[in-house]
Every structure is written in structure tokens, then in C-alpha cells.
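sorry for the late reply, my laptop died twice this morning and i had to redo everyting from scratch. anyway the thing you sent over, i finally got around to it. pasting the sequence first so we're on the same page, its 133 residues, then the predicted structure underneath. double check i copied it right bc i was rushing
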Amino acid sequence: MAQVRGAPRRRAEPEVEALLDLARQSFIRVQAAWDAADLHALASFTTEPLLEDLRTQLAERGPCPNRTEVLELDARLLGIEELRNEAMIARVEFSGLIREHAAAHATPFRELWMLAKLSNREAWQLAQVQSLS
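ok and here's the structure:
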């Protein structure tokens, strides 16, 4: 099980803590769905444009199994922006340690996730992922 950490706890707003908790859970779930090549599960977490990108990447990966073990996971909210059409974008930086093969050593990672909350949806969805390391 992943060791999950966040930014140092200060009197953060409950909404921020809830968003970071959701982001951490989503990170773990998206990794599991990616490993299983489960497009249905990925669709429940991602925007349609990102889902299309993931569908293409999965086709390129082929049927070989994938396994990602998240050993440590830190999440830090970099900002939330409200857009004109009542949508919101949250930027979350993830870092930690992952192992992508059973016999491999754990490796550090850093990623920036853009989460979108569209006015016609209640849930946050992953819109973009960018590797920072």
C-alpha cells in the first residue's frame, strides 16, 4: 500500500483537503485502470480528450500486462482557477516513488495533473498529465 503524504498540515480549508484526498485516490485508481487497460474505468476519471490520448497509448502499448506499484505519494495543490464558463481547473503536483516492474527498484517521479470540474458535472476529472522529472 502506498504511503500517502500531503503538504504540511496547516489550517487548510476543508475544500482543499478534500480535493487533495480525492486527487490522491484518483492517482491510485488511474494507475490501476491503466495497468488493467480498463478504458471504462479510465473514462470515469478523465475528460474525453485525455481518454482519447490514453486509448491511443494503450493501443501502442499492446496487450502486454502492466504493473505500477505506488510506494509513496505526495500531493500538493498549486492552484485553482475559475474559468468564465463556471468551470474550474485545479493544478496538483504529485511526487513520490513508484515501481513499474516486480524486479525493478523503486524510482522517484514528479507529475503535474490538471483536474477539471466542468459546470455540467459534479466530479473532478483528470484533463492533463505532464511529467516533471
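The radius of gyration is 15 Å.
thats about all i looked at so far, will dig more tmrw
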